[in-house]
Request: fold
Amino acid sequence: MSLERQLTLRIGLRDSATFANFLVGGNAAPLHALQQGEEPFIYLWGGQGSGRSHLLQAACHAEAARGGSPAYLPFTELLRTGTGLLEGLEQMSLVCLDDLQAVAGDRTWEEALFHLYNRVRDTGGRLLAAADASPAALGILLPDFGSRLAWGPVFQLQSLDDAGKLAALQLRARARGMELSEEVGAYLLRRCPRDMHALFELLERLDQASLAAQRRLTIPFVRELI
Reply:
């Protein structure tokens, strides 16, 4: 496999997305299923910031650590590459398809993914999929493909409440070697977009600014930056 193709199959894969820094909340069952790595097909769904991308990426990192060959494909970023991207993916030990809602309703993509599901099953690989809606509500045109999405366990991810979001921010901050007080975390929740993806991106920017300025994360400092 060429280096260019290897990089394409891991586009958007963040080093920080691991099982260890995923705040469980009400998602113990899907987390356990992914960590076990025994189910050949799993489907996750939930709204923006529910953690579905984090979990797929964490599964990729865990698979690589076991010596496997994972592929991570976020369709919101790869839609224009064409269905040829799926060719040969059954050779990978784990295939993660993220943001399936981006290709739902496109018959060309649905047919290509239908055949990929069959090839992965035939080769004994594992396939994880995630979207913002359940298989039944995704708007799939091809009935056979819709049935493939529900071949294995289907988990609805539960979004975090405010206390959970604060805990998740503090967990991510500690993983980056920084301290986020409850006071500063609560300030961010009051003043900033509330989905976890946006909050984590903001935390990364704050960390970089803190290091550059050699200052702790305090409310006055954060206020200057946002």
Remarks:
- Residues 3-156 form a domain with the Rossmann fold fold (CATH 3.40.50.300).
- The chain has a mean pLDDT of 90.
- The chain has two domains: 3-156, 162-225.
